[in-house]
User: Fold this.
Amino acid sequence: MLTDTSPDPSDTTTVGEVAYRRIRSDIVLGRLTPGRRLRLERMKEAYGTSISTLRELFNRLATEGLLVAEGSRGFQVTAVSSANLREVASMRLLLESHGLKESFQRGDLEWEGRVVAAYHKLATMEKRMAANDPSSPESWRQYDWAFHVALISACGSDLLLQTYASICDKYLRYQMIAATFRGQEAADEHRVLLESALARDWQRAQQVLVTHVEDCVTQMTSVLDAAA
Assistant:
């Protein structure tokens, strides 16, 4: 998942790594729009790094599928499509469904605390959204993802969590572009996921998750198809 890109005086992270995080965040959150061409000369000042470092970072992001290398023409932010969204959503469901089962079976009291805390923040934001509060949609989506990550955080597999984080960012990119708050329906699904977690009922959680993701994908594909 995305991490905080604000500077920390005690952080020993390299300038290149900080630039990588910023660029990645800007792609996922839609600040660098799909299809946009990124010229190295123009981008080096924006991200405070050299052309050679920037080229390495862009190639790294290309291997993640977030950029497309165009040879001498530079790089382009990967385009979006309904077909790719469905592929990303299918992978998310596969990983998260397995993670739910493992996490519900392994989770301890500390895990329950993380899940409840994440749900409280999300539910509070959803109430504000339902009341037409001008809260940032970006914050709402981040709370949404934090809750889903908390649900599977006790799965016991670092590889699953790392792979899931990568898929999450690709899915979040579509959410930033095409998703809107689905109202009480989505809020109710999150409540059932919480109840299922506390009851350790992973079968019920998996069923709700499928509906939750598929309904969101249906909403987003209609937006993408209308814009095509």
